[in-house]
Amino acid sequence: LTLTLTLTMTSVTDIVPPGVVTGDDLVTLLEHARANGYAIPAVNCTSSSTANSVLEAARKANSPVMIQVSNGGGAFLCGKGLKVTESSIIGSVALAMHVRSVAKYYGIPVVLHSDHCAKKLLPWFDGMLKADEEFYAKYGEPLFSSHMLDLSEEPDEENIAICVEYFKRMAPMKIWLEMEIGITGGEEDGVNNENVDPEKLYTSPEQVYAVYDALSKIGSMFSVAAAFGNVHGVYKPGNVVLSPERLGKHQAYTKKMINSPLEKPIFLVMHGGSGSTDEEIGTAVKHGVIKMNIDTDTQWAYWDGLRKFESDKHDYLQQQIGNPTGPDAPNKKFYDPRVWIRKAEESMVSRVITSCEKLGSAGKYPAVKEGGAPQLGEVKAGINPALYVLAGAALGSAATLLTKVIMK
What we know:
Elements: H1 2-9, E1 19-20, H2 23-36, E2 40-44, H3 48-61, E3 65-69, H4 71-78, H5 87-102, E4 109-114, H6 122-139, E5 146-149, H7 156-170, E6 176-181, E7 186-188, E8 191-193, H8 205-215, E9 222-226, H9 246-258, E10 268-270, H10 278-286, E11 289-294, H11 296-312, E12 321-323, E13 326-330, H12 332-335, H13 337-359, H14 385-407
Parallel strand pairs: 1-4, 2-3, 2-11, 3-4, 4-5, 5-6, 6-9, 9-10, 10-11
Antiparallel strand pairs: 7-8, 12-13
């Protein structure tokens, strides 16, 4: 209660630095969001352009933000022409390095996150963790702030068991784990749940508590994406009704089971929020959602900016020379990628700002307007980070072994 009261009376700018945040700074940021009733938009990015759009929006909205990469997004960022099995790992790490190069200059806190990792994509997860361990061994913090395991298609027992083993590997580096229990409908990055049994779109309080009970024995840096009728993409859920009030029941049940002084002891995450009403989003945040994924709407916004530009300048984009002003007039200033990509960025910036406003994060972190530096590694004093990595590696080996056994 004392911590909650302190956080509600403290400006987040006084307790969280700008730039990529990890470890204790990340915990402080998310605790502040929970205590003050706002959520942070987590936007999927597939390029430096989309990442910069998110950073620009957060700076203009004076808001913390999360930049996340999916398996497919990482492969795209690596380059579709490069046909290697590690492309999703290479691209995800490349995005993280880009964001670390520029984030602090934007003057707002940035969470580097990887999105849905299904069971079949665990090699991608392992590759990112290896990059985290290498970065941590040198600099005392992981490359990414957090990662998500989405094993919701598996039986609950298997889902939780695999999460536990990976969390043991992540905890020594203070990497946040997001997991999903209960299925989000629709289609996301190759995982298709469009025809799933509607009942599976709702997670029970007992399921959420089972996750809490298992993971809390390892550490506190985890969040739960509990399904309440959510659907990825722009889909009509049919007879499924979005029921964010169910999240309050999850909180109440876990509070009772652990006798917590907190009204909202669980960090919750909202997926499939595209098309949700402001009231539904507000109810979800009220019940402890501190992160909401945004992808479909920002994809459209990025395209819409380009679409409007092409429509407006169509006659200047048909050939290199010759337009309505004259047959010899050059068109370079119209087809230069920096021009039309910027129009896409401006549209996406506007949409991300809207998300910040809807989630209540806008205005929570007045952007630092001066200074900045790349965050590509700074050796930190203290216990040799390599010792923690060795411990994590040992636990990671156990996780890999368990995973292989379960997958047989």
